[in-house]
């Protein structure tokens, strides 16, 4: 995919809205009323002079040779009003790579609505059509890199078996490094149409805790668990607003 311009992403969101019905239309209206593009961003830690000191809560596997990440995530209910939002996703390369992130996940908004999305950073995310999200759903999320510029992102509703996939090939926006795999609750950004002036959205509360179960990554062709992961918390105004812990193959993050 090429870099998505403001005009192109509007057209894309319109197409998605037509296919996906009410939920996507609400997402479209919400975005156009605010900023031009939604984006999950690289990990920012101890950002100086900012209200969001850490945009990620969750678990990061660091090293080399990470080509895939997957987990099953329960869909929580968001709180805090329609302008507040949060997201849960799996991905590779958000920690130290800088040039690209391959990721997929779900957003919750403080008004009880949801979006399902995929993203090849630094492009904006795009909504999946053909999958409707409800509180309590179990969503299997996975990303697979088949090269540094190609791969796929998949979400599957384990209740209905409904599955959506986005393939990427010969991406020119940025190349993967395969130096991390991550399982993340994020305070994501919204940006102007040219990708500048990005701002964190007000972070929505969520309940119950989000569990990333059966979480694993592929490193140099082998399946690896979360046992070597570094934990991080979303930190806003110098206060942790998530509390994450790992037990076996499950990462649990609560809103605090
Ligand atoms: C998953 O399937 C169930 C049962 O059909 C449905 O109630 C729910 O809304 C679906 N969720 C998603 C994310 O498709
Ligand atoms: C993605 O690629 C896989 C494997 O080549 C293929 O089976 C599938 O149909 C593709 N999906 C889409 C949405 O293009
Ligand atoms: C990006 O967009 C904003 C507002 O839409 C505009 O003010 C700014 O000049 C643009 N920057 C570039 C580098 O195009
Ligand atoms: C975030 O920064 C702090 C302070 O520099 C550091 O101790 C911590 O390990 C960092 N977290 C991650 C996940 O890298």
Description:
One of its GO terms (biological process) is proteolysis. The structure is a single chain. The chain is mainly beta. The chain has helices spanning 6-20, 22-33, and strands at residues 37-39, 52-54, 56-62, 66-74, 77-79, 81-92, 101-110, 114-121, 126-127, 138-147, 150-157, 163-168, 180-186, 189-191, 199-200, 205-207, 210-219, 222-224, 230-232, 235-236, 239-240, 242-247, 250-255. It has a single domain (17-255), classed as Peptidase G1 (Jelly Rolls). 11% of the residues lie in helices and 50% in strands. The radius of gyration is 16 Å and the shape is globular. The structure holds 2-acetamido-2-deoxy-beta-D-glucopyranose (4 copies). One 2-acetamido-2-deoxy-beta-D-glucopyranose (NAG) binds next to loops.
User: Judging from the principal axes of the Cα atoms, what is the shape?
Assistant: globular
Report how far apart the termini are.
38 Å
Main sheet record = 8 strands, antiparallel
Give the distinct bound molecules: 2-acetamido-2-deoxy-beta-D-glucopyranose
What Rg is obtained from the alpha carbons, in whole angstroms? 16 Å
Q: How much helix is in the residues?
A: 10-25%
In the CATH hierarchy, what is the superfamily?
Peptidase G1
- Give the SSE string: HHEEEEEEEEEEEEEEEEEEEEEEE
Going by CATH, the architecture would be Sandwich
Return the CATH class: Mainly Beta
The poorly predicted ranges are 1-34
